């Protein structure tokens, strides 16, 4: 029996050296070490042996088993290495090839318009500041001369925020960037010259030129001796730099409770070039901003003496600028998240 074991070991060792891949190695394992393999069949016969024989053959069989298992592991390691080297040779990596390009994002057209507009005003000496989108009723309406029952509240209906019962102030999503006029003047003394970009919200039906969330840029300049001429000069210069001198600009009287007098500024329609179409409501003009001279009541509320200081302010709808620029005929495209649209800019 001991001889049979030595023969088995020699036989198995030479068969192991002949294996050339992992599949053959597994077949070898089943043949020599498996449940129905050669070694197991020898071990099964141990039961019919004498005690002395069983001890000697059992110990020798375990030793052979241990050695064959060791040899199996070593062979497995070298076969794996060989297979890896062969597969690398087959696939051949060219480390000098350029890598995959990293996909770069880009700025949203509205973000780009905000940056560009702020840069124009910054070059005219305006500071750029931001303010809260969630605002108190006081700053959005009251302090701007729009008390509780004022009809102007109808055109600026908004989304209201629940506040704790003991909080007596009303909270809302700001309908315009104008509340920042008050916050700025509360914090500083004249001269003030600032622009405020940011999101605003309105509870209104959407159409080609109206969204319920859009962006505005507020402008405010307060000092001694500021006139409506300064307002017009500043806005004309802004329009000339942004659109070029061939675009037509129109000023008309308008009403806002926090200015006196009030104006609106419009640019000739980008689709029909003034002839009249669906987009401009057949008027030939698209309104881009409301403006005016800051109302004396508003100045008084922030402790600026209206007999000494005057100022102008404006609120510009940002989305309408890239619409004018690129001939975009529907504002809803900006936030529809269609990459085919956004990748064009
Ligand atoms: C007026 C006088 C000031 O001294 C200062 C600011 C203002 C503007 C005022 N706060 C205001 O919000 N006026 S507005 O309601 O006419 O909006 C200003 C601009 O925002 C519009 O000219 C238009 O370009 C844009 N806008 C208004 N509603 C919009 C909109 N853009 C997209 N969607 C909407 N729903």
Largest beta sheet: strand ordering: 1-5-6-10-9-8-7
Low-confidence stretches: none
Gross geometry: elongated
Output the CATH class name of the largest domain. Alpha Beta
Q: Class by helix and strand content?
A: alpha+beta
Write down the Rg.
41 Å
The number of helical segments is 12
Can you characterise this structure?
- It is a single chain.
- This protein is an alpha+beta fold and 345 residues long.
- The protein has 2 domains: 2-90; 109-342, Bira Bifunctional Protein, Domain 2 (BirA Bifunctional Protein, domain 2), CATH 3.30.930.
- It contains 12 helices and 10 strands.
- The strands form 2 sheets. Strands 1-5-6-10-9-8-7 form a 7-stranded mixed beta sheet, sandwiched between helices. A 3-stranded antiparallel beta sheet has the order 2-4-3.
- Helix 1 runs parallel beside helix 4 and helix 2 (22-33) packs antiparallel against helix 4.
- The radius of gyration is 41 Å and the shape is elongated.
- The model has no long low-confidence stretch (mean pLDDT 91).
- Residues 176, 178, 202, 204, 210-211, 214, 216, 256, 258-259, 287-292, 313-315, 317, 319-320, 331 line the site of 5'-O-[N-(L-tyrosyl)sulfamoyl]adenosine.
Task: Offer a few descriptive terms.
12 helices; 19% strand; binds 5'-O-[N-(L-tyrosyl)sulfamoyl]adenosine; three-stranded antiparallel β-sheet; 345 residues
Topology:
Elements: H1 2-18, H2 22-33, H3 38-44, H4 51-91, H5 109-123, E1 127-128, E2 134-136, H6 137-140, H7 152-155, E3 160-161, E4 171-173, H8 179-187, E5 192-201, E6 213-223, H9 228-243, E7 249-254, E8 259-268, E9 285-294, H10 296-301, E10 310-317, H11 320-326, H12 339-342
Parallel strand pairs: 1-5
Antiparallel strand pairs: 2-4, 3-4, 5-6, 6-10, 7-8, 8-9, 9-10
Helix pairs in contact: 1-4, 2-4
This protein binds 5'-O-[N-(L-tyrosyl)sulfamoyl]adenosine.
